[in-house]
Amino acid sequence: DSGVTQTPKHLITATGQRVTLRCSPRSGDLSVYWYQQSLDQGLQFLIQYYNGEERAKGNILERFSAQQFPDLHSELNLSSLELGDSALYFCASSVERRSPLHFGNGTRLTVT
Amino acid sequence: DAKTTQPTSMDCAEGRAANLPCNHSTISGNEYVYWYRQIHSQGPQYIIHGLKNNETNEMASLIITEDRKSSTLILPHATLRDTAVYYCIVRVDPDYKLSFGAGTTVTVRA
User: Fold this and answer.
1) Are B15 and B78 in contact (CB under 8 A)?
2) In this model, does residue B94 exceed pLDDT 60?
3) A25 touches chain B (CB under 8 A)
4) Which of A16, A96, B1, B39 is most buried by its number of CB atoms within 10 A?
5) What is the pLDDT of residue B93?
6) What digits encode the pLDDT tens for the residues A14-36?
């Protein structure tokens, strides 16, 4: 158990809809990272927050947004969903720079 | 991030040591080598990391060559539970993100 909690574990929704994925980092970790893993793309970095502020951005679509709240949990919002957004979405957290990332077990999103 | 090259797949016998190579010939002096593994769609699991010295923890050992252009992850006594995709990643400081490649699919056989 990494200590990172992601909810829900599974999500099935229709194209055009909007969903919110939630992540609770390990106790004491200030950084939160979001990754997307689809069958043909591998693990892709989306975005990172540190203590409530956006720190780094990767291949995140404009339809996607994220935030980190004062209690350090984070949410990833996906809107106008397309079939191609079906993937595993992982959240990770770390204490500080150079610290290892610890991943949750992901949310499996299926868009039908 | 410096690019890494890993074999696509490898097999290992249960109980034997598994030696996973990684080439990172363009690594810079401030870049760390990290190893993660992912067991069948679970979240990636941190294994070990190092800068230039060899490292060992309860899971594995990391051997980094003197020129730092390659490294080897050693699983001392592989078990069936070690079957996974293993990722070798070079991480820039102060860049925080980890960039995952395709990794090595390791299959431990009884």
Assistant:
1) yes
2) no
3) no
4) B1
5) 57
6) 999 999 999 999 999 999 999 99
Pairwise CB contact (< 8 Å): A98 & B93: yes
Q: Nearest CA to B110 among B81, B90, B88, B84?
A: B81
Provide Rg for chain B, Cα atoms: 13
Residue of A nearest to B49 (CA): A100
Q: Which residues of chain A have pLDDT under 50?
A: none
Element (H, E) at B101: none
Q: Measure A14 CA to nearest chain B CA, in Å.
A: 23
**What pLDDT is attached to residue B1?**
58
Q: Is the pLDDT of residue B68 over 80?
A: yes
**Confidence (pLDDT) at B56:** 97
Tell me the DSSP string of chain A.
Answer: --S-EEE-SEEEE-TT--EEEEEEPPTT--EEEEEEEETTTEEEEEEEEETTEEEEE-S--TTEEEEE-TTS-EEEEE-S--GGG-EEEEEEEESSTTSPPEE---EEEEE-
Of A4, A43, A56, the CB nearest to B96: A56
Inspect the interface and report whether the beta carbons of A88 and B41 lie closer than 8 Å.
yes
